[in-house]
Design brief:
Helix content: 55-70%
Order of helices and strands: EHHEHH
Number of strands: 2
Number of helices: 4
Strand content: under 5%
């Protein structure tokens, strides 16, 4: 599935800032969930809202503070999309 270029760049940057031992599993899980979110919306491109929703649904609670910091570091505007809920 295609990704919005800016969203993909931010996501890749965010992944690169994660602890090494979390990167692969986080990238795989969030990518799959973001693509599922886009399909559910009936679109053919993953957008920022899909990635943010995937992160908030798949990241375990103990890692929320790290996730929030990383979202802010790469300029993902999670509040604009209604998170955290």
């Amino acid at each position: 599935m295609d990704w919005d270029t800016k969203t993909q760049e931010k996501f890749k940057l965010m992944i690169s800032k994660m602890p090494v031992f979390h990167r692969r599993i986080a990238e795989e899980a969030v990518t799959l969930k973001a693509q599922e979110n886009a399909r559910e919306r009936g679109v053919s491109q993953v957008e920022e809202a899909d990635v943010i929703s995937a992160l908030f649904s798949d990241v375990p609670k103990p890692f929320y503070s790290l996730m929030i910091r990383l979202l802010e570091d790469v300029k993902f505007d999670y509040r604009k999309h209604g998170f955290p809920k």
